[in-house]
């Protein structure tokens, strides 16, 4: 259920009443029929992401049937913003002032086309008052063009005043309005000056439940055709909103305005029993009632595919963990017979004690993740690429997010053999050789010629090796779920100069943000975190990996103890085609079940820069928790980001003013500690 309209005061924008449009189905609808039964409703949210429609010159909104509930608020909001600007400018002119005393919205939008394809002519009564109010917001027809498309010839009075910009279209013989009307207007928009966006339902988000389902709201045939038309016009963008009806109904509950004094806002509670059931069961976006849940489970291809993939994963993960334990124990026993000072002899038993305690963990769905603010230490998300993108837009990852190969849009893999051929071009490579002697328990890499390193890697009778400091080689390594999200690109794009550099810059942090992991079967890493509070994205190109982790909530206690983690690590099973998103501060100790090649990228989230600095302070206090030194570029980069944050650079989203003040103090302290300038 979504708010379809609210009455905003012209001067303040505050609302006293909100209107909902509901389908005549479900427990909430039954209660809503009786004024006495529905005394209190809880507002939950907000969820989803800002489409930033005000940044587009041309906007097309498309809805079918009750899908208008997800579309009309966008038109109303933009119209109210423009109306506010017009009235403020007029008041300023009357007062003979040079500049307005209040800030203007200054939206770029020049035209909004809204198409509502009704399933039945009677549906117009749902939105009659709201459409009339919308028309009053644009009395000179400068912004809005509304199209109501009816399935049968009209007999009743139109819901608004008809003119060249507000039209009711009825079927005529031999006319396909979708092709000659909506599609024709969309094609026009592709040639209009400025940026154009079509807001419509995408079929690629079907599993994200009722909280995040997309929008040219209506049935799949209609919305799919709208989306395809937008895609055919390459200059246009296509976007989604957060409402899609679960089933098209001819008889929705009548729209009713509810006084806001009867709505108590509570962020963490869901009052809709159907939505709560959906979140608990991890189902798709269809509304599942107790009467048809069994039928849904049996017949929904979306849920079946997801559940099958998860069950298969859990079985394979358990089997892989058992096999890996047995093989690693054999490796440790072989190492015990070698020189006692080698890494495998000195450290193998220590890692095996951790290995013995590893557990599989508890996967949750994307919707379960979005509805929670706290998580069990064993939980991680399994979801599709598209779902992962929405999770990342909503907030920084709180738990690991795993996209299985079966659910992953990223399919381009770099074969291990091809990568090893590429490495032969380098004169030397840095390696950790588990057969090396480690005097005084200090593990140091050594540099060998590339031919020797690859020979050691390929020799099955030789101890494991890890190749180190491998810069990114794979083309376009950033996962699709992170592509196009500017908040996660601030590490790369926040630089002192743009364009051609006039002088060389230290860029060790920026350059390490893309990397390869190449490990021989049996290679492992002791528990550590990735430096400087990065979120790490990993794609399995070739081979099998167990990625054991401990949640970031346990980081401080582990760092202070100076010992191994006391709790069991959660083992994630990675196979070719899987993508893992690891939150900042996650302790991890991966193990290579086979020869493995992975592509990785590291990211900061501009919204969480304070947390990144706090984590870097912890690394400085307890240097043993990370296996890398402070990057030379770090102090300068966080200082530059401080300046961007202070100026409220619109390229990124930022934290609060209080966060900024604390962040600035930590940047200054870090600069003093390192002897650098920030």
TrEMBL record:
<dbReference type="Pfam" id="PF08030">
    <property type="entry name" value="NAD_binding_6"/>
</dbReference>
<dbReference type="GO" id="GO:0005886">
    <property type="term" value="C:plasma membrane"/>
</dbReference>
<keyword id="KW-0560">Oxidoreductase</keyword>
<dbReference type="InterPro" id="IPR013121">
    <property type="entry name" value="Fe_red_NAD-bd_6"/>
</dbReference>
<dbReference type="GO" id="GO:0000293">
    <property type="term" value="F:ferric-chelate reductase activity"/>
</dbReference>
<keyword id="KW-0813">Transport</keyword>
<dbReference type="GO" id="GO:0006879">
    <property type="term" value="P:intracellular iron ion homeostasis"/>
</dbReference>
<dbReference type="GO" id="GO:0015677">
    <property type="term" value="P:copper ion import"/>
</dbReference>
<dbReference type="InterPro" id="IPR039261">
    <property type="entry name" value="FNR_nucleotide-bd"/>
</dbReference>
<dbReference type="InterPro" id="IPR051410">
    <property type="entry name" value="Ferric/Cupric_Reductase"/>
</dbReference>
<protein>
    <recommendedName>
        <fullName>Ferric reductase NAD binding domain-containing protein</fullName>
    </recommendedName>
</protein>
<dbReference type="GO" id="GO:0006826">
    <property type="term" value="P:iron ion transport"/>
</dbReference>
<feature type="domain" description="Ferric reductase NAD binding">
    <location>
        <begin position="56"/>
        <end position="140"/>
    </location>
</feature>
């Amino acid at each position: 259920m979504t708010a379809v309209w609210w009455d905003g005061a012209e001067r303040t924008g505050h609302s006293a009443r909100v209107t909902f449009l509901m389908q005549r189905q479900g427990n909430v609808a039954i209660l809503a029929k009786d004024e006495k039964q529905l005394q209190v409703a809880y507002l939950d949210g907000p969820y989803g992401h800002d489409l930033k429609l005000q940044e587009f010159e041309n906007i097309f909104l498309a809805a079918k049937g009750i899908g208008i509930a997800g579309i009309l608020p966008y038109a109303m909001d933009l119209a109210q913003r423009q109306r506010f600007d017009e009235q403020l400018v007029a008041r300023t002119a009357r007062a003979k002032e040079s500049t307005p005393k209040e800030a203007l919205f200054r939206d770029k939008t020049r035209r909004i086309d809204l198409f509502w394809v009704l399933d039945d002519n009677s549906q117009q009564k749902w939105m009659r008052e709201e459409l009339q109010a919308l028309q009053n917001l644009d009395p000179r027809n400068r912004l809005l063009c509304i199209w109501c498309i009816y399935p049968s010839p009209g007999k009743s009075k139109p819901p608004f005043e008809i003119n060249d910009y507000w039209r009711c279209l009825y079927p005529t013989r031999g006319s396909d309005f979708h092709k000659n009307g909506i599609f024709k207007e969309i094609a026009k928009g592709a040639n209009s000056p400025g940026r154009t966006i079509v807001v419509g339902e995408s079929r690629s988000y079907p599993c994200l439940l009722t909280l995040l389902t997309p929008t040219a709201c209506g049935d799949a045939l209609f919305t799919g055709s709208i989306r395809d038309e937008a895609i055919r016009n390459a200059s246009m963008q296509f976007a989604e909103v957060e409402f899609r009806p679960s089933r098209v109904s001819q008889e929705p509950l009548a729209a009713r305005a509810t006084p806001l004094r009867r709505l108590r806002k509570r962020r963490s509670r869901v009052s809709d029993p159907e939505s709560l059931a959906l979140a608990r069961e991890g189902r798709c976006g269809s509304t599942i009632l107790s009467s048809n849940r069994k039928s849904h489970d049996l017949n929904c291809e979306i849920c079946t595919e997801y559940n099958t993939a998860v069950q298969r994963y859990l079985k394979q993960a358990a089997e892989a963990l058992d096999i890996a334990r047995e093989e690693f124990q054999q490796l440790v026993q072989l190492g015990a017979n070698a020189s006692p000072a080698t890494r495998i002899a000195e450290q193998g038993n220590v890692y095996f004690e951790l290995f013995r305690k590893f557990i599989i963990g508890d996967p949750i769905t994307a919707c379960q993740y979005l509805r929670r603010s706290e998580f069990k230490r064993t939980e991680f998300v399994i979801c599709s690429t598209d779902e992962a993108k929405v999770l990342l837009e909503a907030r920084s990852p709180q738990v690991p997010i795993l996209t299985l190969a079966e659910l992953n849009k990223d399919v381009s893999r770099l074969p291990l053999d091809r990568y090893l051929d590429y490495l032969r071009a380098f004169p030397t490579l840095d390696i950790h050789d588990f057969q090396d002697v480690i005097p005084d328990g200090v593990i140091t890499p050594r540099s060998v010629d590339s031919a020797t390193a690859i020979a050691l890697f390929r020799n099955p009778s030789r101890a494991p090796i890890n190749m180190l400091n491998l810069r990114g080689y794979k083309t376009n390594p950033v996962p699709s779920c992170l592509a196009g999200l500017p908040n996660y690109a601030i590490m790369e794009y926040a630089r002192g100069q743009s364009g051609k550099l006039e002088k060389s810059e230290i860029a060790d942090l920026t350059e390490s943000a893309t990397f390869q992991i190449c490990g021989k079967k049996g290679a492992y890493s002791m528990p550590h975190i990735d430096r400087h509070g990065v979120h790490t994205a990993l794609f399995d190109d070739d081979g099998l990996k167990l990625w054991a982790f401990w949640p970031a909530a346990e980081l401080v206690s582990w760092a202070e103890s100076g010992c191994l983690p006391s709790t069991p690590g959660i083992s994630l099973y990675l196979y070719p085609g899987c993508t893992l998103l690891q939150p900042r501060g996650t302790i991890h100790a991966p193990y290579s079940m086979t020869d493995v090649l992975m592509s990785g990228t590291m990211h900061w989230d501009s919204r969480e820069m304070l947390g990144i600095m706090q984590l870097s302070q912890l690394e400085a206090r307890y240097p043993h928790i990370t296996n890398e030194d402070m990057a030379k570029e770090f102090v300068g980069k966080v200082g530059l980001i401080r300046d961007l944050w202070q100026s409220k650079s619109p390229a990124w989203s930022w934290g609060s003013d209080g966060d900024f003040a604390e962040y600035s103090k930590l940047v200054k302290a870090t600069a003093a500690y390192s002897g650098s300038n920030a």
